[in-house]
Design goal:
With about 350 residues, this protein is mainly beta. It is built from four helices and 25 strands. The strands form five sheets. A six-stranded antiparallel beta barrel has the order 1-2-3-6-5-4.
Length: about 350
């Protein structure tokens, strides 16, 4: 392919300011990108959850001179978060209709990853569409000058003069990128943007849900563990379930096995038996033998499901680690479902989880 011709075509289609009103540079605990979206009279930013994990302050920089601040509003599956813009002078507008997306994307071979730099300038990287499965698009750099890297997570991706999705993650070894498609982002966020409802009022958990758990000694006798329903997990791309997923999660007390690190982000939903509401104040994770949690899991977040079905990230928590266990304790929240998200690890080729548990005081 003639890369110079591709660049000239893309530069002609993507005029400055024509499509980038929706993009912002994000500075939080990590650096990344986000997409602005107006819902009713409020302005939100959609970004990968790992960009804003446990951030106490989020600043935004738009193209040119636009600046703003934001706070975490909620989190969704597949490492996606919504920020509520709390101040600034950023332009914010509704998204265009995503109708006929499946038909459109089949006709596209090339795309452009557009990024707002910290100084408000604009960068473009040209990529080839390698695979499309409806929810995700895999892309590869068109040349060595277009390599992708992790600080670009959240960047807007365009094809044929249309926004097609958001760069969600980058494989550090190959610089290939995984994109959440716009229709899939719509599906994940539709219920939340239709209107949030308050969290359920505290309730007493049924006595028959309480179980003894030897690992509770690690955080003290004041924690009571709950009987769990079968644990569910999700991974962000297609792969061979028989070899990578089938042994991963069966029951709360079985060995979950391992999965390749390049399949991150990984989400794990832990539900109280029968869907009962319980005051959850701790999550326990046991790693497989030989895996030290102190040096293994780099970024892990905990979110509790609210009454409207959306997830609220726990931002004030304490972490207790030993060589075998990792406990995350926090002010109890009444919920029936807790979601763990592992978005990064310190290294190695595999991620493993042996046991999980939910507890309350």
């Amino acid at each position: 392919m003639n890369h110079s011709a591709l660049r000239m075509q893309a530069a002609f289609l993507l005029l400055p300011g024509q499509l980038l009103a929706q993009s912002v540079h994000i500075q939080a605990n990590d650096v990344g990108q986000g997409l602005l979206r107006q819902i009713a009279k409020e302005c939100y930013v959609l970004t990968p959850e790992h960009v804003v994990t446990a951030a106490s302050r989020v600043t935004l920089k738009g193209e040119g001179l636009g600046r703003g601040t934001a706070e975490l509003a909620t989190t969704f599956a597949d490492d996606l978060a919504a920020l509520r813009v709390t101040g600034g002078d950023l332009g914010c507008s509704p998204w265009a209709d995503t109708g006929k997306f499946a038909e459109f994307i089949k006709s596209q071979n090339d795309a452009v990853v557009q990024t707002i730099n910290a100084d408000g300038s604009l960068s473009k990287r040209f990529v080839r569409i390698a695979e499309v499965d409806g929810r995700y698009i895999q892309v590869r750099p068109a040349s060595n000058n277009d390599n992708l890297f992790q600080g670009l997570s959240g960047s807007a991706v365009y094809a044929g003069n249309k926004l097609i999705g958001m760069l969600q993650s980058v494989d550090a070894a190959t610089t290939a990128g995984l994109i959440l498609t716009l229709p899939y982002i719509e599906d994940l966020t539709r219920q939340y943007f239709a209107g949030a409802t308050p969290s359920p009022a505290p309730q007493k958990a049924p006595d028959d849900l309480l179980v003894s758990y030897p690992a509770a000694e690690a955080v003290g006798d004041s924690y009571k563990f709950y009987r769990l329903s079968p644990v569910k997990s999700s991974l962000p791309r297609s792969f061979t379930a028989e070899t990578a997923m089938a042994p991963l999660i069966d029951r709360s007390d079985s060995s979950f096995g391992t999965f390749p690190a390049f399949l991150l982000p990984f989400t794990l939903d832990i539900s109280v038996a029968g869907g009962a509401l319980a005051p959850i104040g701790a999550v326990m994770i046991k790693m497989p033998a030989g895996v030290d949690t102190r040096n293994y899991v780099k970024t892990l977040t905990v979110s509790a499901q609210e009454a409207n079905g959306n997830f609220r990230m726990i931002t004030q928590a304490s972490v207790h680690r030993s060589t075998e266990f990792q406990f995350i304790t926090f002010e109890p929240v009444t919920t029936s479902l807790v979601r763990l998200s592992i978005t990064q690890n310190w290294g190695g080729s595999e991620i493993g989880i042996a046991e999980v548990g939910l507890a309350g005081k």
